[in-house]
Amino acid sequence: MDPDIERSLNILGLTEDISLEEVERVYRGLVASRTSWGDVKEINWAYECLREHIAAREAAVTSRETPAAEPEARPANNVSSRRIILGVIVSSAILAAVLAVLAHFNVINLQSSPASGDLSDIIKSVKPAIVTILTEGTPRGSGFVVSKDGYIVTNAHVMREKTGKAAFTDGSVTVVELIFMDPELDFALLKTADTRQYQYLRLGDSSACFEGETVIAAGTPLSFDTTFTRGIISASKRSFPAYRASFIQTDAALSPGNSGGPLINLKGDVIGVNSLKISGISVEGMGFAVSINDVKQHIIARKRMSDDDLSRQLARMEKKMEEMSQWRNQASAREEKSARDRMVEEQWERDRRRKEFAERVEEANRSLREQKEQEERRIHEEGDRYRKQMREQMETKRKALSECLQAANHRYQTAWNDSCASTGLDAKCKLPYSTARILEQRLMQTRNECFRLYPQ
Question: 97 with 123, same domain?
Fold first, then answer.
């Protein structure tokens, strides 16, 4: 026998000669009695496997009994075909009914999903289903709607009363009742008092999440309504001594008030319930969410506890909070001691480096003072030399300019006397205006040339 067929028969509790009608009857009964999605998936697989096996078996028997070439075999083939078609129709109807049931219990959601990876679309789509949980009129944490008839998921340590209120992002507030709690999973299921249609979130598969996957954390941190933060999955499976749940570690910012809010992937599916974070002097980005697969069966079952059971669970939750407080105090004490040791060591190292730095600074200052004194002496000496050179150059230029001007005046007088002698007159005679004008212009040109050659 085929191993898959044998396994399918064992899952459904049937024998090999079972009919298709009996398989369908057993299948419907098992699906109706199961609350775990893992069990339902396994039953679906077994049913499909047996349905195909029975159809193939009936087709093979019909083929052996009546050859295809004989005309009288057609009615039998038609009967077999009708049986197969009828089986397919019945199977399709059953599958549609199962999908409708699973969609009703929010195991799957037939609603359209936002574009994968578009953060703004995802946030816009999930925001109406995020709530703030209030007890005694005070915000205690966050939660999210998981069904259209108003079931809400949050942490057990958030809802520590049997009744409270849920505030929605549209401003509406409704009374909620605690119907189920499991402190070991830090899980609580609430039911709204209002009978209206709610927008709700799809439940994803936390076993499929992986390190590095981008996620969004939603909630009401520090009373800031409906805040979204983004991060990645740091680890997909973490555990804590006080819980039996598996936790998803993320670096998405979580603050007091985020507890109970959803951790959402880029498909818009809930893969975790934000539960706790580790904080400290040297700790950053360590938040944890309960894996949704660990609480999914409770969400699907929607079991309502009795009042006495809820009271016992609330008492256990208080004890659990004390255990977590002790664990955190011990962790804080260890961290504080480690921090003190580090502070002492760091202070000693700082003092050593400060002393070493001061010695280096003093040595550098001495060297700088010496360099400064040497540089000041050098600049002073160079300044004296420069000023002396400038005085000598100025004196030389003055002498050269004086000699040049004297030579120009001498040539002017000589030319004047020569002009007087050429006309038979005595020296320094009165020359005609045109001649005197020419001599004066030559004198001015010569003087200008002197000033150009020897500027002052």
Answer: no
Report the C-alpha gap between 440 and 322 in whole angstroms.
117
pLDDT in tens, 309-322: 999 999 988 888 77
pLDDT in tens, 49-94: 888 888 888 777 766 655 544 444 344 444 444 555 555 555 555 6
- CA count, 13 A, side-chain hemisphere, 18: 23
Radius of gyration, CA atoms only, the chain? 49
**pTM higher than 0.70, yes or no?**
no
Return the closest-CA partner of residue 307 out of 165, 193, 192, 179: 179
State the CATH number of the domain containing residue 259.
2.40.10.120
Whether 92 and 145 map to the same domain: the answer is no
Residues involved in catalysis: 157, 186, 259
Three-state SS at 48: helix
Are 34 and 128 contained in the same domain? no
Per DSSP, 242 falls in state: T
What DSSP string describes 86-134? HHHHHHHHHHHHHHHHHHHTTSS--S--PPTT-HHHHHHHHGGGEEEEE
In the beta sheet, which residues pair with residue 166? Answer: 133, 174
pLDDT tens sequence across 256-268: 899 999 999 999 9
Residues 124 and 270 in one domain: yes
pLDDT in tens, 195-242: 889 999 999 999 999 999 999 999 999 878 889 999 999 999 998 877
Q: Specify if 325 maps to a domain.
A: no
